[in-house]
Amino acid sequence: MTKAKKSLVCWALLSPFLLVVLFPYATMLSTSLKQKDEIFTFHRTWLPRELYLGNFAELIFEKGFGRALANSLAISVGATVLSLAVAIPAAYALTRMRVPGKGALTNYLLITQMISPIVLIVGLFRMFAYFGLVNSLLSVIIAHSAFFMAFAVWMLQSYFATIPKDLEEAAWIDGAGRFSAFIRVFLPLCLPGIVVTAIFTFVNSWNEYAMSLTLLRQVTQQTAPVQIAFLTGTLYQIEWHLIMAATLLASVPVAIVFASIQRYLIGGMALGGVK
Amino acid sequence: MPGIEKTAPRRALSAGRSSKMGLPGPAFALILIAPCLLLSVAVIGYPIFDVIRMSLFDVSRTGVVREFSGLANFAKAFADPVFLQAARQTVIWTVCVVAGTLLVSVPIALILNEDFYGRTIARTIVLLPWAISLAMTAVVWRYVVNGDFGTLNMTLAALGLPFENYPWLADARMAFLIEILIGILVSVPFTVTILLGGLTSIPESLYEASAIDGAASTRSFYYITLPLLWPFMQIALVLNVIYVFNSFPIIWIMTNGGPANRTDILITYVYKQAFAFGKLGNAAAGSMVMFAILLVFAIVYLFLTRAQGAKNDD
Amino acid sequence: MASINLTNIRKQYGAVTIIDDVSIAIEDREFVVLVGPSGCGKSTLLRMIAGLETISAGTIAIDGEVVNDIGPQRRDLAMVFQTYALYPHMTTAQNIGFPLKLRGASQDEIGRSVAEVANTLHLDALLDRQPRALSGGQRQRVAMGRAMVREPRAFLFDEPLSNLDAKLRHHMRIELRQLHKSLGATSIYVTHDQIEAMTMADRIVVMNRGKVEQVGTPLELFDKPANVFVAGFLGSPTINLGNATLAAQDGSATLEFHAGSGPIDLANVPPSPHKEVVAGVRPQHLEVVSPEGVKLTGTVDLVEHTGCETNVILSVGSEKWTVQSRTRQHLTQGENVGLVFDPTNLHLFAADTKERIRW
Predict the structure, then answer these.
(1) Would the pLDDT of B313 be above 60?
(2) Which of B95, B167, C221, C230 is 20 to 30 A away from residue A109, measured at CA?
(3) Is the pLDDT reported for residue A91 higher than 50?
(4) Closest C-alpha among B154, B135, B129 to residue B144
(5) Which chain A residue has its CA at the smallest distance from C151's CA?
(6) What CATH number has the domain bearing residue C250?
(7) In DSSP terms, which residues pair with C347 in a beta bridge?
């Protein structure tokens, strides 16, 4: 079988699944470019009447979706920074030093990764309420960091382990202190790994729903996914054209960023998972 | 393994000297780990404790913990027909989504491991659902299958099929089925990623050797691919069970457990008990049941990965 | 430059002893090679000197100053790693200049020193390249340059040539040796390759299972190995060793190999005759002769021609022996031959302690 022929077969076999994956995107794109009357009509078509961008403008300027995006951005950036700030030293210690109780610690982190925040949501809510942090973006930043950090530690660990220890030792012998060797030699080398981990954490935080829904109870603080879901709960007539525009805005940039790191996930993730 | 435990204290002793030498000892390592551990224990550990406490005490609607009530909350939960129904539906939900995911993912991973034109694009598209918030996926699909305005009926009608105004989510069975299908769709990317990682770790030389030995490609699939992929499938299976069991947004947003609790699973049941009905004790008891089940899965996972790790060390 | 003294050094991981009571005195400007089979502790010992491994007991002193508690940063040693450990994100010039930069040298100073070192090592044209764009030999040179640039108290080498191909290894051996002559730097060099040890060292330290087996100049070790291990480790092809019985009476002595030989007359008698011995003859000291009237005989298994030497592998009883000869041997497989040697070239070791019997 030639490669061309094989390609045809492969694409044909994949096409049903690809169709299902792309169907919602087509829906988002098509609907978000339509005007309201085009949706609530009997004779509907895939192609919008014209390339109407008014939905996006209305969403941002009238419905306050811009603020939801800003909230999401603030939370995701905050959670990424916080979880990396605690995960990098931890991952460094776990890969490079003798840590008493290392096995127990790794198992603990692994188990925390498997507990859904929603199982603990009642306790989580009460704790943040006790500190007066409900309805503060900070609570979600902290909660996201705690839940996504274990994964970050684990991803970073597998990257750190690929940097030969020799290099730091050479730096020490060359006269660098432990910190200086870390900054000048170790960090520049594992930067790609840190970037991938950061992006992954960012995307996870951006997409998280349940904790944001529960901890932020005012409309002005809603994150993008929460606000989108909230808009579908309107009693009267659901404004699908606006909602689809919102999902498009909130998902496409993230999807592009995510796609950029996908090749790092394959292999890295499986290896880490098995080892 | 036992040997390492035996030697550990002495190791720590000799490493203790090193702190003077500029090679930081275990104390410094613990300082580096402390923030991570602290954050985790505070935000995950404390709520666990709190939920355990609430499950064993009488808790008021406003969350005041009153007197110890033993297993009364659990008894109440198990006496609640909705809880039992949700539990039953959780099993259906988890089994169907996980089985469906593996069934779809294995062939997709095998295809994506082949060398063909546009493979990178195909991989990217397959992984796409992973990049998007489950909440937003649920919202979009809720619109897609909307009876009156949805794009699914629009497309089916355009193809001449009689689905002009079919209300997909009105019937509980159909709604649950759709939710299961979407559950499969969003679980495939992660599963394919793990399986692809497994497939790329199989050295090409094995296939070449078996080809030289005269094995046909179907035979090399059974004797090489499948056995080597099996550990990855096990891990994908257990992780998926955990994730799917925990999955909240799809059902919450598409049907909110309805109609008539017929699509509720434990996690939506717990959430409703806590935040809609204010039955915190009930919710905590439900959470504990889920927590116990998750712990069992987590231990199975640890067992699987350790066994695998040990094999890799040989 | 500096002298380095190791006194009663020990290294333990729990119950496992990696280094067992090692004492070595390395003089200023000396080139010492630590050699031994893999796992003998030679690399660990080197890393302890560098400050990369902790010491369980004993002292390491550089120029009389005990450095046990001083970190690798402040020991002022340089090390060339087996993997070269070049910083992948830095160019050749940056790699070589890194130790100076850490010491706060000015850009001018760094530039001058780097240029000088690069000139010595013929790296001038490669200064702007990153390690991944260099060949194995070039990387090796950059690693050397980084070690040389700051004139350390001593050089430590951890199997620096083992990643090079045979030809380049030979070339670098000579270059390193010349470099040592011109710099006169105290050097400790770890290798598992006995040829490197023999050709480069002022003194060799043979290690086995965490202990020092023998210390001495290459020829001392070759001519008078202190025990069976050293005899077997140095020399290529490997020395022929056989269990034998030593009989001494009335000022004359005979040796009878268990593998099968008549009593061989020895020129002089060991002072304290051990009855049971391990006897060793290097392949170079054996000669193949016609079997008639010879006490030690064997059957030819294989003849190897390397061009200038011929190796004859024979069965002596149940043992395999090798004879190396400068003349071409025309022997056929299965042929019965006699073996003779000059008794002054015979090495005798006590069968129980495996220690050399001096005579």
Answers:
(1) no
(2) B95
(3) yes
(4) B154
(5) A174
(6) 2.40.50.140
(7) C280
Residue of A nearest to B15 (CA): A98
Q: Which of C44, C47, C87, C100 to mutate to test the interface with A (most CBs of A within 10 A)?
A: C87
CA distance C181 to chain A (A): 23
**Assigned domain for B75 exists:** no
Residue B6 lies in a domain: no
List, for residues C111-143, the tens digit of each pLDDT value.
999 999 999 888 999 999 999 999 988 999 999
Q: Are residues C197 and C338 in the same domain?
A: no
C137 in the same domain as C93: yes
Contact between B7 and C13 using a beta-carbon 8 Å cutoff: yes
User: Looking at CA atoms only, how far is residue B19 from chain A in angstroms?
Assistant: 12
Task: State residue A100's pLDDT score.
Answer: 83
**Given this model, what pLDDT does residue C299 score?**
92
Nearest CB to C85; choose among A169, A175, A176:
A169
Tens of pLDDT, residues A188-200: 988 888 988 999 8
Q: Residue B63: its pLDDT value, please?
A: 74
Which residue, among C76, C89, C139, would best test binding to A if mutated, counting the most A CBs under 10 Å from its CB? Answer: C89
Same domain? C330 vs C220: no
Number of domains into which chain B is organized: 1
Residue B293 one-letter amino acid: I
pLDDT tens digits, C138-195: 999 999 999 999 889 999 999 999 888 888 888 889 988 998 988 888 999 999 999 9
Residue B177 sits in a domain whose CATH number is 1.10.3720.10
Question: Can you read off the two tokens belonging to residue B129?
Answer: 């659902």
| Chain C residues in contact with A98 (beta carbon < 8 A) | none
How many Å is the maximal CA-CA distance in chain B?
A: 81
Q: Is B78 on the interface with A (CB under 8 A)?
A: no
Provide the residue range defining the domain that includes C180: 4-232
Amino acid present at A71: N
Are residues C196 and C100 part of one domain? Answer: yes
- Domain segments of chain A as ranges: 63-274
Q: Which residues of C touch A173 (CB under 8 A)?
A: 50-52, 72-73, 75, 77-79
Identify the pLDDT of residue A140: 95
Q: Which two tokens stand for residue C34?
A: 């630590």
Question: Of C197, C232, C267, which closes a domain?
Answer: C232
Q: Report whether pLDDT(C196) > 60.
A: yes
Q: C16 and B20 in contact by Cβ < 8 A? A: no
In terms of Cβ atoms closer than 10 Å to its own Cβ (0-12, 13-18, 19+), residue A26 is middle
Nearest to C237 by CA among C194, C174, C190: C194
Mean pLDDT of A101-114: 83
What's the CATH number where C106 sits? 3.40.50.300
Range of the domain at B167: 80-313
pLDDT of residue C270: 67
Are C15 and B11 within 8 A, CB to CB? no
| Domain A63-274, CATH homologous superfamily name and number | MetI-like (1.10.3720.10)
Judge contact between B263 and B172, C-beta under 8 A.
Answer: yes
**With 50 as the cut, is the pLDDT of residue B11 above it?**
no
**What is the overall mean pLDDT for chain C?**
90
> Are residues C226 and C295 both part of a single domain?
no
User: Looking at the 3D structure of chain C, how many domains does it have?
Assistant: 2
What's the rounded mean pLDDT across residues C305-331? 88
Indicate whether B190 belongs to any domain. Answer: yes
pLDDT, residue C131, reads 92
Signed CA dihedral, B31, B33, B34, B35: sign only: positive
Q: Report if residue C358 sits inside a domain.
A: no
Q: How many CA atoms lie within 13 A of C246 on its CB side?
A: 26
DSSP bridge partners of C32 = C188, C203
CA distance A155 to C95: 29
**Which amino acid makes up residue B260?**
A
Domain co-membership, C123 together with C260: no
Q: Residue C248's beta-bridge partner residues? A: C253
Reported as a single tens digit per residue, the pLDDT across A32-61 is 888 877 777 767 778 777 778 888 888 888
Match 């403008």 to its residue by tokens: A57
Asked if A27 and B29 come within 8 Å (Cβ–Cβ), the reply is: no
